[in-house]
């Protein structure tokens, strides 16, 4: 996978309800420690409400039976999960051992706060059967302190398109950004009520999806050594392209659109092209959500001057709380749930994992349409290891670097907006340094 910065600086669908699930049946003691023979004890696992979690919860009883470890699982919505971590980990809580977290959103912050246990020594003793080298996206879970998480769920940005509209226009699937622009213009002109293109337009939400356009132009958010690169010619070309696609071929009100709104427009047949995460494929084929299940396709992100450069990231990983009193049991659980066998079992349920060997196994890709599996594999090979600025204050950074798109859509001067974003983002990098 393509990396655009050194390893040391390559750092790194929820519900509102919270559910506490006690997975009993284990024979471990109640003191939270492992027995003398390495079996038994208790383990506190905190997970996000996610399809990966849904599959894993049904299998934890097997882990308890095998190890004698009593696993207590807390499942929370994404926002609640982050809130709980911020409160509990800051207080040094020990009732969180294994924690499901978002590496690119939280790893640098949590690691800099001393909340994550570096896993390098554990990885070195992981054994050939578990095989850390089999995992993709390792730099995305690495901070200055070392490897702080194991990837479990991955995603890439892809191009969704309407096959019927392309056929009617006599066009091939766009392979370059120039071809995408031309196809969007042609189809919009030929089909009243159909927009040529749709994508995220909300200031912060657009950043992750805009990133693949930025990388394809040869740009990035910064140089990995503390210098912002928002005002470079490469970045300017990407901002102008993405914003003009939204302005010229997108629906009205695009600045209020995150993935839910943009997806809905494409799923209702109102747009020819849509770029977003590979995880939304099932939404496209779900007859309860989509009218285009039989008339859409998926392709790798179109190439810019630097080729196709989609982000390819772990959207979720498993980490160990630095304050955990159950490190041995925590690591045992992580090795079990991320083993080649379990990774394949989970991926067969349609959750994209991070092991190369599973993606090379026909059984491992059996839950994915052949076209989608091939796009994911190719995107992993060509992909970039981050989809947002890799900083502690990710939210602040996203608001800054998303600004030039909004400015362009509002009719403001792009160069002035880029200069302003450059200054603000450089100040953020200086603050963190």
UniProtKB/TrEMBL annotation:
Highest taxon, organism lineage: Bacteria
CDD domains the UniProt entry points to: PBP2_TMBP_like (cd13585)
Coiled-coil ranges (or none): none
Keywords: Signal
Signal peptide: 1-18
A Pfam family reported for this protein in Swiss-Prot or TrEMBL: SBP_bac_1
Keyword Signal belongs to the record: yes
Protein name: Sugar ABC transporter substrate-binding protein
